[in-house]
Amino acid sequence: MKIYLAYTGGTIGMVPSEQGLVPDAAFAEQLAQQLNKADELPHDFDIVSYPTLIDSSNATTQDWQTIARDIEKKWHDFDAFIVLHGTDTMAYTACALTYMFANSDKPIIVTGSQVPLYKTRTDAMNNVLGAISACEEGVNGVFLFFAGRLIEGDRAHKAHTSDWQAFNSPNHPEYGILGIDWRWRESAQPKLPMTIQIPDMDESAVTLLPVFPGVTATHWQGLLNDDVKGAVLMSYGAGNAPDKNTALLALLKGAADRGVVIVNVSQCGAGRIAAGAYAAGSALVQAGVISGDDMTYEAAFVKLHFLTGLGLTAKEIKTML
Predict the structure, then answer these.
(1) Which terminus of the chain is more exposed, N or C, with fewer CB under 10 A?
(2) Is 216 known to be catalytic?
(3) Is residue 11 annotated as a catalytic residue, yes or no?
(4) What pTM was computed for the model?
(5) Nearest CA-CA partner of 54 in 79, 82, 88, 95
(6) Catalytic residue among 11, 93, 111, 308
(7) Is 88 labelled as part of a ligand binding site?
(8) Predicted local distance difference test score (pLDDT) of residue 40
(9) Residue numbers of the chain with a pLDDT score lower than 50
(10) Contact between 264 and 284 (Cβ < 8 Å)
(11) 79 marked ligand binding residue
(12) Domain locations in the chain?
């Protein structure tokens, strides 16, 4: 099997510096040495470090496009793709690749680590080897693999800063769990044709609207500027926000009326939006806010970027969320 591994930056390949941990350009060679030691890995690995390595906290929509175009360019040369990435925004990148390589007929697996490879007690090789194992199993699609969990790219959420199990799938069972052997989720989804779409995405096109006690229209006015085409509203509970604040609701309605797609997702760690179950949620519906159902905020944010990048109208986008 020919497997392409792209090191984009992140903790897995970082080394100490005077400013703290920074990505190491020599990481690809170090990883290759580790993989070549393993006789039970009879694969042809091509490990590449990107020319500009980033801490994933600096990742932007342009980085999603760079990774996707790199994979697309090499699509016919490899059987599987592993993206080594920082954990801070790994869920966003996995989600973006899910939309850009819809119904992928090859494995694209995003992984990284909580502790750098150079450390003696690190999770780096376990995560890399787990991602390789998933490729060997022939799973097709875009996934995030971390600490034995294989999660669909648009379902992953970073849930912990310091546990080995940094990611979870709050509203959907994991696709696979790796112990001594793999345990797979039963799935009877129809096989759909693969499509690759890598749109140009404007970093200023999508924003987040946090709901908190005392939130006012003034807090959100700058966020809902004229450049914005989509917004993720981070609501309470099952989709609630202050329904007595008429200025706040008027701001939302004005944005929705001018074509901003506003998607309601819950601040809670799990569960789905029940639009209109409470009066405080019904007010959002009347203001033009649509339900994000059980999407993570990462998925809602990325999907709005992807769909607006495709040049779709607000009406078209609403039918695809």
Answers:
(1) N
(2) no
(3) yes
(4) 0.95
(5) 88
(6) 11
(7) yes
(8) 86
(9) none
(10) yes
(11) no
(12) 2-196, 206-319
